[in-house]
What we know:
- By secondary structure, the chain is an all-beta fold.
- It has one helix and 43 strands.
Amino acid sequence: MAYQTMTLPAFGSVRMDLCEGLLKPDMSPEAYNADTRSGALCPVGGFSRVMQETVGAETPYERMYVYATEQGNRYFAAAQDMLYLYDATSAIWRPLYQFEHDVRGERMDFLKVRIGTLDRLLIACGSEPMLSFDPETGTVDAFGTEEKRSYRTVSYAELYFGRLFAAGDPAAPSRLYWSKAPGGGRTIDDWRPDDASENVSGGFVDVGIDDDPITGLFALSNQLLIFKRDSLYRLLGDRPSNYRIVTVDASFRQPLHTACVRYADRLFFLTDGGLYFYDGQTVRKSQAFRALEPLLRMANLGGTRVAACDDTLYFAIRSRYGAPYNDTVIEYDVLRDRFMLRRGFTAADLCTVHGVLHALTGGGKLVAFDGNTTYDGDPIDVVYKTPLLDLGRKDANKILLRLTACGTGRIRVRTDADGGVCETTARFSTVPCSVTEIPLRGVGRVFRLTFSSVNGEPFRLDTPATLLFDLQKRPG
């Protein structure tokens, strides 16, 4: 019939829940390691090792933590049987503490606190009393004492209105402990009642029933959220005399403690039912997260880890059952309400410090996402697929001829059509403001374009780009 053109819009985010024919051209049914925030297509920033030495644990990795101090960062890694600390002087990961029983990351918590005038890092592991790390000596000891009633086996710790709250005691699964109010000689490692006043006393309360154990604590600006296996409560008030524990009447699937993250005084959490957030009053489900429902149906969220960095939430999940570590990271851009996936590495845990995302890989490497062009030497393979396109004419063949665009580096373009599959590699012109024509081959009534990197090389494909094709009516 005649040559025609189509303008490819800005590259957008992943959407897997709709039939491809219903997707807008700026949505992708499959994309990973792609940065589309500017509308152009380029690889995401990679990561580099923080230190060259790997942890070298003999049991699976569970957690990691970066303890930021004025003297510098201290790096921790926890395997099921051992807690490790990186010794920068000797350039080794040294065993710091051996757990009496194997620990699970979902029942482990880290918390920076001040005990009197001393800064400490608390480590709760759920199988024995809390540990206290001293950054001056680089050692750990028991946090509490039996005399002060703080020698408890807990899994979760949180600061709320200056007090230390803790839960996850196997001997009292629904019990919530709190410390004395610090000041006047009182410290948060003292959980005893105080004759001076109820309002400075330590204490505890049983929340609900023991058959419904506490599974997480999270403090917001004006309330403490208490997750239980089958319910959710919130503690209101700033002192024991006005504490009120109220049930949050909301229907949702309960998350792991490690699948929850705070952002802008809201708590986001991922479950196999989708992405939810607590808005200060109740739990709401993110409607946009339906875009990834097919991924969640196949995924194993039993080891989910999450971190917030700037305005992006990162959820590390296992894309399939049987995977030893999380192998897919979901990036959720909160401001744009869009999603992208990362693949090509494993993540036993995630952590953010000073605005930089860190991860502990399944191979025991502690890395920082510093915008490197590789994943610590491994290529960043980018894939971005357009939805199936028929241009409003399924009755006519489209003979794909060329793509005209601006960009840098090399790119691979694959065309899938009902007439076959073709692939070509092209290098963009290095002349400023130059336009490159990429020849295409492919014939079909519907087609899809797949853009990908070449051997992990950096590239950039600017939009809009122009697709030239010949529209031919089919005989008969």
